[in-house]
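A common beginner's mistake is to predict each chain separately and then try to dock the pieces by hand. The better habit, illustrated here, is to supply every component at once so that their relative placement is modeled jointly.
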Amino acid sequence: MASPLTAGFCELVFNSAEAPEGVQPTLQVLSVKKINAPGASGQDRYRLILSDGKHFIQAMIATQLNHMVESKELDKNVLIKMTGYVTNAVQGRKLVIILQLETVPWNGEKIGNPTNLEQQQGAGGTSAPAAAAAAPKQEVGGFAARQQSSAGRGGAASKPGARGKQEVGPLYPIEGLSPYQNKWTIKARVTQKSDIKHYSNQRGEGKLFSVTFMDETGEIRATGFNEAVDNFYNMLEEGKVFFISRARINIAKKQFSNVNNEYEIMFENQTEIEPCDDDTVPQVKYNFKGIGDLGELQKDEICDVIGVVREVHELGSVTSKATNKPFAKRDIQLVDSSGQSVRLTLWGKQAETFQADDQPVIAFKGVKVGDFGGRSLSMFSSATMSVNPDISEAHQLRGWFDAEGHNTQFQAYTNQGNANSTSGAAQGAKPSELKTIGEAKDESLGMSEKTDYFTTSATVAFVKQETFSYPACANPEGCNKKVVDDGTGWLCEKCDRKWDNPIHRYILSMNVMDHTGSFWITAFNEQAEQIMEISANDLMKLKEEGSDINAPFQKATGKTYAFQMMAKQDSFNDQPKVRYQCRRVSAPDYVSESAHLSQLINQMNV
DNA sequence: CCCCCCCC
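With all components supplied together, the output reads:
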């Protein structure tokens, strides 16, 4: 029986300068693998090994085909007909990028015994990879044809011939652009446009701007200098779709951009940009990180966030340490249904002009994560924000906030416990950061010079009965110092007074536990009294009368509280250890606790 | 060819 596969296709791709025009090969998938580097908008990327029965080559699928992998429609041994693809050669390796495919019915068996073309070529002649690297090629398969026909169906005047006076090459996916190829046109939407920036350096003065383009396969940043600013700045409106051709492709300097592409476009004098009225090009894609999950990100990471603007702070100004220049800044507070709030800082013109007095939902793309106050967010030059966008996440947030969110007490990000580093007098102080007992131990809270503060939701497992109190100075003005019985009365060294009887105050040792572990904590009088529901002095009286005092201890056991904790370094027999002191006891706050737990669950990566 | 993204 003849093989259903397109014989010789792999060799053709690997060796030929020209891609087979109009060929839609049928190939077999030998493997599908998720690769580590995420694609545009943080989506997963999949690498395929494709066989023509004799050889195999590597391929990537465009992210809009990811669902076919996820549904297992695209899987090992499946036959596919590639109806849209480009081939890409970088560093001597050929890669097929599949833009569109159809699966072909097949019995699931592997066809032939294909071998790796790359290795054979490399072993056969050492010059092969070098030659490929020196003269890399990129050719287009079915993509251009598909684009033309779909544009034709839509009635848009977007056939290559109608795009401009000169032949500028076939329509390319952004994902298929590379520096080795200059005959291309992309059709893409401007998702972000910077202000015009003027600069002055050794080379002279100049101005520039940049935009981010997006199509169904990816995004790319483009920059224009001087004349390009005059030619294109006004035309390239945010949100609109354009044909772009005859521009240069450079290697992107990733450290200065959050745009997900190895390359970037540089507008040149001969660059052509024309508006396009085809609106099928995708809108901005978001990959939102929940506000409660920002702890999973590293400082300086870039992310997308959506939230309700709960507070808008006044316009302020800071002076940059680096440049000594003043910058306008404005902080806003964002919340979402995680129960967590986060501060986001706007800069410059954006800070000055920001207005939101009706608690809108705002979607932010490309904001930078900071670690000030635990977690904070900052606008970036290439960040965008969209007020009340018409996306489901925004509608959900609006509904949640109006129904219940406006009454929620939000948990702010804090540095470890510093929210409570002032004494308990801080009424209405924000609750300090929730930590499980396991986290408190893992993070070695209380093991450094400074005292750490945190809150633990835990259950009383055991209360020590033997010593629960100390005899304290009875001075009604409040002294609370320990007093000693010298035989003639209880002496307070601080007050220099003697009392017939001391007042017993709690120094209660308890073992408390949560799902991650347990630790021993000490509660002093007020907190212990809350837990024991009897004063230490009364309890001591009962004990001295010889009564059974077991009942209040039993009653205290098994109850769950939010313990505001202070963890301090201490030593015991020359071994450093942590002393955990309970500074406040309250009913558990299930809202913030749930937010904390869901954050922990998300960190499990399951 | 810019490339700073700031402060507390």
